[in-house]
Write the structure tokens for this entry.
Amino acid sequence: MQSLLMRSPIFVAVCWIGAYLFITLLPLLLLLIYPPFEDRGFWLDLSVALGFIG
């Protein structure tokens, strides 16, 4: 594993991009799992999700 990290900067870049996507998309996945509150609408939930990404 160590030699792969030293020889392939593409592998390191793919790992960083994957970590970034995981961290940014995790709140969206959590919003999909839990049911929405009754008093909030779709647009408010969408704006909160976009705020997590931003």
Observations:
- The mean pLDDT is 81.
- The CA atoms of residues 4 and 11 lie 8 Å apart.
- The chain has three helices and no strands.
